Amino acid sequence: MHKLSPSTVLRRQSFPAKWEHLPCPKSKCLGGIRTLNHTRQDIEDKLSALKSSIYFSGSNGRISASLRTTEEYLMETLALMTDMLKNPKFDKEELDKLKTQDLADIEQNKSEPRYLASKQLRLLNQKYEKGHPLYATTIEEDIDQINAVTVEAIQSYYDTYYGISDNATLVAIGNFDDQQLKDYFEKNFADFKSNKPYQPIADKFTLNNATNEKIKTPDKKNAISIGVMSFEASQEDADYAALEIASSIFGGGFLNSRIAGRLRQKDGVSYGAGGYVGVDSNPKDKNSSITVYAIYAPENAAKVQRGFSEEIERFIKDGITEDELKVAVNSWVQGENVSRAKDNELSSTINNNLYYDRDMMFYKNIEDKVTRLTVDDVNKVIKKYFKTFDDWTVINAGDFVEYEINNKEKVD
Length: 412
Description:
Layout: E1 3-4, E2 7-11, H1 24-28, E3 34-35, H2 40-50, E4 53-59, E5 62-70, H3 74-86, E6 88-89, H4 92-109, H5 113-124, H6 139-148, H7 151-161, E7 167-171, H8 178-188, E8 211-216, E9 223-232, H9 240-252, H10 258-266, E10 272-278, E11 287-296, H11 301-318, H12 322-340, H13 343-356, H14 361-371, H15 375-385, E12 393-398
Parallel strand pairs: 8-12
Antiparallel strand pairs: 1-5, 2-5, 2-7, 3-6, 4-5, 9-11, 9-12, 10-11
Helix pairs in contact: 4-6, 9-12, 9-14, 9-15, 10-11
C-alpha cells in the first residue's frame, strides 16, 4: 500500500475589513459541512470507506487543501475534495453549531493564563488599525464578530474570493501518475477561477514594545510568562544558519537548553520552559522574533523573572561553548532529516519553495553553513540580535501575590 499526500494552495486577494476574522471563511466551514451533492455524514462515511482523510486550512489570502490516501483511492478522494471545495452548502444549523463551539471555547479560556497571556502579547504589539486583516482583536471583539456571522455573509465571501487566481500551487508526494494528476486538476478546476489577482499581505518588521506586565487569574494553580523580542532578519540572510543554532542552544532543548536548564534543572521552579528564534521566510518583511516561556507555580514568579533576565544576559555576554555547538549542530541536522521524511512537512517546504522561487538546494546550502559554523560565528550573531530582558515584551498571567525583580539578588 503506497501512501499519497497531494496538497494544493490557493492564494487569493486579501479580504477587506467587513470580512475580518469570520470563523467559516478561513476554510473552517469547508471541513465540516455538506455539499450540494453530499451530506456531512455521507462525506464522513465515504472517507472512512476510502481509508482517507481531507483537511482544509487557511488564513487571510491563502487556502490550503490536503489529503492523505492510497494510490488505489486517489481519484475518488480527489473527487470528494473537489466537491467540498467547489460545491459547499453553507447551512444555518451547521453555522450555529460552529458559532456555539467558538463562543464556548472563548468563555472557557477567559480565565486561562496561557490564552490571556498570548492574547495580551499580540495586543501590546498591535501595529495595525482595526479593519486590517492582521489587526489583533480583543476577546470582546472576537465575540462580537462571531455573533455577527451569517450564512449569507459566508456565501457572499465564498462567491467573491474562492477560486484559482494567478497564484496557486499543487504538490503531491508518493507513488502516482503525475500526468493523470495534472489532467485531473486542469479539467476539474478549469471553471473554478477567481478574477481577483493575488495580493500578499505585508507584515513588515517593527520593534516590539518594551514592557513587563501582569494579568491576574484567580484560583489558577499554574502561571505562565511569555516574552517576545523582535528583530529584523529573514531566512535568506547570511546569519540564518547561526541563528538556528543559537535558537537550539538558547531554548530548543526540553531539558538541556539554557532556559530549560536554568528554570527546570537548576532552580527547579518551572514545569516547562524554553524558547526559540523564529526567522521570517519572507525576505521583504524580515519580521523575526525571539520568544521565551515558562509554566510555573505563581509563588515562583520572581525567580522565573530573574532566571530569564540573568540567562539572557549571560547568553549575550559569554556566548556558547564548543560542546554546545557540537550537540546543537548534530541535533539540528537530525531534525531536518526527520522533517524531510514526513510528507506533510515536505509538502509545506515545497509549497514555500514555489512561493519564494527557491528549491531544495536552498536548504542544502543552509545545512552546509550550519555544519561549518564555529563558536565565534554563533556568538557574533547572538550579540548582534539578542537584547537584555528589559527590552522584551513580557506578559505574566497567574494568581500572583505581589512580586518584583530584585536584580541585586543574583542566582548563581
